[in-house]
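SAMPLE LOG
Freezer: B-3
Tube label: C17
Construct: single chain, 169 aa
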Amino acid sequence: MKKNSGFTILELLITLVVIAIVTAIGVPSMTEFIKNDRLTTQINTLVGHLAYARSEAITRRLPVVVCASNNQTSCSSANWADGWIVFTDADNSGDVSAGEEVLRAQQKLSGDNTLVSSTGGSVVYDNRGFAPNSPGSFSLCDDRGAVHIKAITISNTGRVRKGGSSSCT
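STRUCTURE (predicted):
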């Protein structure tokens, strides 16, 4: 008698049902993970650029500005979600002038996330690394609203810390 080796149709159907159930449970969790990771990455990028600007202001002994920008060459936007630039501001004009260097540029935030600032369109670090005219907070939100907000606060001394605003508007 010849013995067949392989799977029966019933075994294959049960396997497919188990895979479908695991996928149905796992996909929403993966979506949440991706959104949380995107928010964390974006707020950490902003914190990194603010820390870099503060460090460069002290090192260069010049004011350094971080401002909202949609073209990555000038302070051309009031919407921080469009991106931002970090630049030296030797003439204290608040915008990139001839001879001033754009140190870093950040593109538009992905995922249709919103970044709201109470500091206005720019954060200015003086040659001591202080931000006396720019204290305030940033709030980063996605389509889930204020429940998953990421917020940072900038003090007069230029220090950035976690927390702050609880609003996405």
